[in-house]
Design a protein that fits this description.
Blueprint: H1 14-31, H2 33-71, H3 74-102, H4 106-118, H5 138-142, H6 158-169, H7 176-190, H8 199-207, H9 213-226, H10 231-240, H11 245-269, H12 274-300, H13 304-317, H14 326-337, H15 340-350, H16 359-374, H17 379-385, H18 389-404, H19 410-421
Helix pairs in contact: 8-9, 9-10, 10-11, 11-12, 12-13, 13-14, 14-15, 15-16, 16-18, 16-19, 18-19
């Protein structure tokens, strides 16, 4: 086969040689001083032209925009308003759907997770559930923002009620935010600096930080192997493993027996050191929590009067320990008994301006005030003479409750006003 032109074996192509010679001549001319000066002059003239041209183009552009805006008709502004409202409505519907499903705002999540790091912000929000690791260090938890939210004293049992709901409906009843709040409560109530003195408490300190339910249950059994009288281990099993209220009550009774014994020991030596005082506070929290949960079990199993007695005794025994809001559980039981006079007595003590409000107190107060005026209320009479003082107080109580927490079931929010207008309900 004959060697081709430019293959490296035959003679070079004449056209290629001529192109190379022309390129070499142009390169020598460009390297000359006069050529460099000419190029610099051309570049300067181009820059000068751009500097003078840009303001002129901006002025022409502003003039064109002014003419365009003056030529717009009201129909354009109407169409623009309708279009923007429609887009805003779509965004609102999507936000509502995302919040109902995931318990968080999509726009807020995207802005915090993706946009804030790009502009130099520090990411302090809790990660998504899938990205959370059980071995997250203490420094990351301290960087999380403080949650400004009142605790819910009517929280259900996680195994016997929340898990059963998930089995029946296939929906997760607790959001990651709810789980994070309850984990913080468990660590505050059931752990202290002296956990290292008791091996079972050391295991439970790690158990409350676990995110996997099976890992928490396994750790509770490990703590019971080290100490059969570990009250917090029985508490965890009652909350997590028990699938019925009966099983939960059985675990809580075991926790009560162990908790009372540990509480008496802590009382005898609490004055020896600050560490022993912290241990007594923790053991007191455990005992109060167990007794409150037993009272809630009794109410859910139909023993309402027994539940009321247990709560009243607990409030008398520990009058200063109000972090669990036992009085709100008492209101729930008294309402079920229809003991409205007793409910009013509890509200008179706890519905005070100096105490933190809650939806339970606000709605219960509104219910009682509405009930007091519903029997004699007549819309026709009220239209003629106006509302009386008691009726005005009932309406104000309803507005106060809805303003405090509008996120309540619709039948409750609408049922109280209907009770005022229709006493037969």
């Amino acid at each position: 086969m004959a060697d081709g032109c430019g293959s490296g074996r035959g003679p070079p192509c004449p056209g290629a040689g001529a192109a190379l010679r022309r390129w070499e001549q142009l390169r020598r001319r460009a390297a000359a001083p006069w050529a460099r000066g000419l190029l610099a002059a051309v570049a300067g003239l181009g820059l000068f032209y751009a500097v003078l041209r840009v303001p002129l183009r901006l002025r022409d552009g502003l003039a064109a925009v002014t003419v365009f805006l003056s030529a717009l008709t009201p129909k354009f502004y109407f169409a623009l308003t309708v279009t923007s409202s429609f887009i805003s409505g779509l965004i609102f519907v999507f936000e509502w759907w995302h919040f109902r499903k995931y318990g968080t705002s999509f726009i807020e999540q995207v802005s915090v997770s993706h946009l804030r790091p790009l502009i130099g912000g520090v990411e302090n929000s809790p990660p998504a559930p899938a990205a959370f690791s059980a071995g997250e260090n203490e420094a990351n938890r301290q960087n999380m923002p403080e949650c400004k939210m009142w605790r819910n004293p009517l929280n259900l049992f996680r195994g016997a009620e929340y898990s059963r709901y998930m089995w029946v409906t296939g929906k997760e009843p607790l959001t990651y935010y709810d789980m994070n709040l309850s984990a913080q409560d468990h660590q505050n109530f059931f752990t202290c600096d002296t956990d290292s003195l008791r091996p079972s408490d050391t295991v439970m300190q790690k158990a409350w930080r676990e995110r996997n339910p099976q890992a928490r249950i396994k750790a509770a059994y490990q703590a019971l192997e080290l100490n059969n009288d570990c009250a917090t281990a029985y508490v965890l099993l009652a909350e997590e493993e028990a699938t019925t209220i009966v099983d939960a009550e059985r675990y809580f009774k075991q926790a009560l027996k162990a908790g009372e014994m540990i509480y008496r020991k802590s009382q005898n030596c609490h004055s020896q050191s600050p560490q022993h005082e912290a241990q007594l506070r923790r053991d007191t929290n455990v005992l109060v929590y167990v007794k409150r949960r037993l009272a809630m079990c009794a109410r859910k199993l139909g023993r309402i009067r027994e539940s009321v007695k247990m709560m009243r005794d607990l409030m008398k025994e520990f009058p200063l320990l109000s972090m669990l809001n036992i009085h709100e559980n008492l209101l729930e039981a008294l309402l079920e008994l229809q003991a409205y006079a007793d409910v009013q007595a509890v509200l008179a003590k706890y519905d005070d301006i100096s105490l933190p409000k809650s939806a339970a107190i606000c709605y219960t107060a509104a219910l009682l005030k509405a009930r007091a005026v519903s029997e004699r209320f007549s819309p026709e009479t009220a239209f003629k003479r106006g509302l009386s003082t008691a009726e005005i107080n009932a309406v104000e109580a309803i507005h106060r409750a809805v303003e405090f927490n509008p996120h309540v079931p619709k039948d409750i929010a609408e049922g109280i006003p209907q009770l005022v207008t229709n006493p037969k309900l």
